[in-house]
């Protein structure tokens, strides 16, 4: 026997039994975006490697060790997108969406990072992201936070997530602070872990983002960025906090929140849950006012965030029941019913456009058809036999106990039966 070919580690199939939750989440996201007047944008999954190196930063986890990079047949270096912001900016510049315009965009799709797979961390995962261009905040920054907060309420996760915010200040303020950090960490150079030693002179801010427990103490005593902010950033951060207060969104200022990517400035935020162990960040974002220029566009203020859908689905799975069961199954008894079943099913669908109706195919005894109807989770079995065919009627059998009001089964003229189905949905 041949060996079975398996999927790639960390790249998962999403099975029919799981899909209802995914679709529920995706539909709710789409509805929310429409509610706020945001437009969807779709861009490729593969881009030139240089795009990510130049935007995310050479000395970041993603670029140093997580990217799926390969040479294509022309010898060009390409990368499976590890995130959406850089691609969105590339697309916005290339398609002329950003010059003297405001854009409020969203996207949803797979991202790829070569990380160690574990619960909440995969090599192919899905992000829903929002990017806004041409608005410098802080009102729009708060809109993004309020919008995510509304989403948590809609999907029933409001009690499971908390908001953490910080300001990274202007690029100059950050550069000053970097020097302060280098001075501080240099005193402990020998005690730093390997990653942090390497980052000390290239990207000291990232040391603060370390998840290594041995770095916790040194990190917690480090000087805080908030004390080195420029006046404008300080003022805007204060304004932002005031608007958050007005909007009654609870938040925690986390002075150590720096985010793992190089392009952020001013506001950064994360929605974090304690329910998923170390993989607790379900949504993360911030302002990136210099990225458009850095990628060859005109200077354009920008802010955005991305959510990891796997982590949200994992939270939802423990709290929510959603199913994609059909509403009804059409059972066919006898040869005539079998040959006319398909046409009758179409007629029912014409009358009941909101009904999800599964047609029993392949023929079987009534008993085994009933068994399968029960197993399908449908609310109704619609029965078509010679008797119904001759009288242009349908028999409807209610399968769920709570629906059984009077009779469990009714034989009605076709149009009355369809009315009843429509009413019972
Ligand atoms: P982390 O600190 O957990 O590695 P990150 O800072 O690398 O996250 P971002 O690049 O900001 O994450 O991505 C935004 C969101 O995408 C994360 O908050 C998380 O919910 C999700 N995410 C990131 N990497 C993965 C992954 N490998 N598997 C599943 N979800 C992920
Ligand atoms: Mg990461």
Description:
The protein starts with 15 loop residues before the first helix and ends with a helix. Helices cover 39% and strands 20% of the residues. The chain is elongated. The longest helix is centred in the first third of the chain and has 21 residues. Helix 1 runs antiparallel to helix 5. The mean pLDDT is 93. The protein has 16 helices and 16 strands. It binds adenosine-5'-triphosphate (ATP) and magnesium ion. Adenosine-5'-triphosphate (ATP) binds next to strand 6, strand 10, strand 11 and helix 12.
Could you give a short description of this structure?
With 425 residues, this protein is α+β, with helices and mostly antiparallel strands. The protein has helices at residues 16-36, 49-56, 61-66, 85-94, 139-154, 171-186, 194-199, 205-208, 216-220, 231-246, 291-294, 309-317, 335-351, 366-375, 386-391, 414-424, and strands spanning 39-40, 46-48, 68-71, 77-80, 103-112, 124-133, 162-167, 252-253, 265-272, 281-287, 302-308, 328-332, 357-359, 380-384, 393-398, 409-413. The strands form 3 sheets. An 8-stranded mixed beta sheet has the order 1-5-6-11-10-9-7-8. The protein has a 5-stranded mixed beta sheet with strand order 13-12-14-15-16, sandwiched between helices.
């Amino acid at each position: 026997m041949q060996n079975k070919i398996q999927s790639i580690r960390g790249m998962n199939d999403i099975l029919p039994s799981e899909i209802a939750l995914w679709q529920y989440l995706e539909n709710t996201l789409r509805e929310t975006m429409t509610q706020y007047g945001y437009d969807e944008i779709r861009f490729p999954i593969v881009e030139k490697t240089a795009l990510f190196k130049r935007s995310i930063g050479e000395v970041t986890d993603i670029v140093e060790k997580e990217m799926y990079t390969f040479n294509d047949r022309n010898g060009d270096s390409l990368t499976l997108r590890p995130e959406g912001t850089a691609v969105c900016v590339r697309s916005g510049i290339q398609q002329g969406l950003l010059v003297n315009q405001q854009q409020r965009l969203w996207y949803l799709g797979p991202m790829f990072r070569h990380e160690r797979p574990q619960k909440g961390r995969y090599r192919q995962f899905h992000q829903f992201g929002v990017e806004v261009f041409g608005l410098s905040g802080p009102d729009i920054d708060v809109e993004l936070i309020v919008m995510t907060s509304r989403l948590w309420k809609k999907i029933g996760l409001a009690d499971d997530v908390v908001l953490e915010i910080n300001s990274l200040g202007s690029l100059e303020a950050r550069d000053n602070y970097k020097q302060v950090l280098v001075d501080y960490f240099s005193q402990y150079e020998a005690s730093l872990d390997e990653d942090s030693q390497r980052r000390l002179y290239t990207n000291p801010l990232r040391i603060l983002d370390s998840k290594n427990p041995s770095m916790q103490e040194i990190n917690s005593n480090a000087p805080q960025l908030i004390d080195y902010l420029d006046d404008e950033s300080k003022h805007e951060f204060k304004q932002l906090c005031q608007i958050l207060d007005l909007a009654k969104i609870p938040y925690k200022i986390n002075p150590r929140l720096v985010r793992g990517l190089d392009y952020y400035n001013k506001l950064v935020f994360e929605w974090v849950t304690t329910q998923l162990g170390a993989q607790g960040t379900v949504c993360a974002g911030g302002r990136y006012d210099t990225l458009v220029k850095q990628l060859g566009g005109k200077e354009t203020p920008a802010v955005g965030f991305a959510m990891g859908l796997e982590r949200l689905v994992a939270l939802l799975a423990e709290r929510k029941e959603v199913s994609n069961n059909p509403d009804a199954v059409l059972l066919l008894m006898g040869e005539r019913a079998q040959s006319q079943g398909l046409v009758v099913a179409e007629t029912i669908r014409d009358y009941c456009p909101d009904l999800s109706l599964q047609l029993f195919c392949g023929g079987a005894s009534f008993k085994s058809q009933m068994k399968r109807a029960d197993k399908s989770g449908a609310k109704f079995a619609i029965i078509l036999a010679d008797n119904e065919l001759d009288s242009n009627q349908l028999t409807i059998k209610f399968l769920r106990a709570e629906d059984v009001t009077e009779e469990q089964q009714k034989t009605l003229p076709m149009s009355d039966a369809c009315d009843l189905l429509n009413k019972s949905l």
